[in-house]
Amino acid sequence: MPWEDDQGDGLTFIVGHSLGGSIFLEYLDPAQAMLDPRSGVGAGYAPPVLIHGGVVIGATLQADVMGTTIPWRQNDTALTKPPGLPLLFLAGEFDGMATPELVSDTVSRYMAPTAKVVQKGCNHFGWTEGPGEFDLRQLDGKALIDERQQKQHTLRLVVAFLSTIADERPDAIANALKNAAADGDEVSVR
Question: What is the pLDDT, as a whole number, of residue 68?
Answer without folding.
Answer: 85
